[in-house]
Amino acid sequence: FSNSYTSIFKSDLLSLHEEIIFKKRIMMHTWFECKIRYEKTMEDGSQKKVTEQYVVDALSFTEAEASIIEEMSSYISGEFEVKDIKKAAYGEIFFSDSPSADRWYKAKLQFITIDEKTEKEKKSTVNYLVHGSTLPGAVKSIDEVMGGTMIDYVIASIAETQIMDVFEHNQTLKKTEVDDKPEYEQDGQNAEEAHQ
User: Fold this and answer.
1) Most trustworthy range by pLDDT among 71-80, 93-102, 138-147, 159-168
2) Of 15-19, 59-63, 75-79, 99-103, which gets the smallest average pLDDT?
3) pLDDT higher than threshold 90 for residue 164
4) Which one of 62, 75, 87, 169 is least enclosed by Cβ atoms within 10 Å?
5) What confidence category does residue 139 fall into, taking pLDDT thresholds of 50, 70 and 90?
6) What is the reported pLDDT for 182?
7) Which of 9-13, 41-45, 162-166 has the lowest mean pLDDT?
8) Alpha-carbon distance 80 to 155, whole Å?
9) Could you tell me if 108 and 138 are in contact, meaning their C-beta atoms sit under 8 angstroms apart?
10) For the sheet containing 26-27, what is the strand order?
11) Which long-range contacts (CB under 8 A, 24 or more apart) does 153-158 make?
12) pLDDT higher than 70, residue 166
């Protein structure tokens, strides 16, 4: 490969994340997988101990534990126990705005890059968590995002996970901070803008 080709390819790699974020709502954060054990009321009215898996956005294990406790307190009326927390190995999470998307798929993508020194092809693997309603739908979602890039990729594997939901903890905090301005201050600012 020529040096000009290599530099173009490197440029494409650097802009990959920008292109992906532009095309689809994707979160690039540190994610933690959390397992919660509690007594769930089943459809027949009986109580059964279950363990469910969730993913939270957090900066540390301590924050992940606090986040999952806060989130689950809204859904579980009785007591529950955080059984396990581990750092998730996802490069990114692809969210879907479709109301039918109720499952999470773990996809392993292989990207073909070129080593600048040896000018040889090199494969790098990245794991993604993909929100969708079906396996073909999740594959389509990946292709929609990645297909518009100049990067060669292969879906090495994709499988449904046991993850129940993903909580974007930091995103929620940022939204709250933005809307935190009192209305009278907003009205005063709007009036000043109107006079100018």
Assistant:
1) 159-168
2) 15-19
3) yes
4) 62
5) very high
6) 45
7) 9-13
8) 37
9) no
10) 26-27, 92-94, 121-132, 103-114, 153-160
11) 153/109, 153/110, 153/111, 153/112, 154/109, 154/110, 154/112, 155/107, 155/108, 155/109, 156/108, 156/109, 156/110, 156/125, 157/107, 157/108, 158/105, 158/106, 158/107, 158/108, 158/130
12) yes
Tokens describing residue 118: 């040896």
pLDDT band at 169 (very low <50, low <70, confident <90, very high): low
What is the distance between the alpha carbons of residues 82 and 51, in angstroms, rounded to a whole number?
A: 9
Kindly report the pTM of this predicted structure. Answer: 0.70
Nearest to 170, CA basis, from 18, 31, 19: 31
Residue owning tokens 């693997």: 125
Strand pairing class (31-41; 47-57):
antiparallel
State residue 107's pLDDT score: 97
Within 8 A by CB and 6+ apart from 176, the residues are: none
Is 92 within 8 Å of 128 (Cβ atoms)?
A: yes
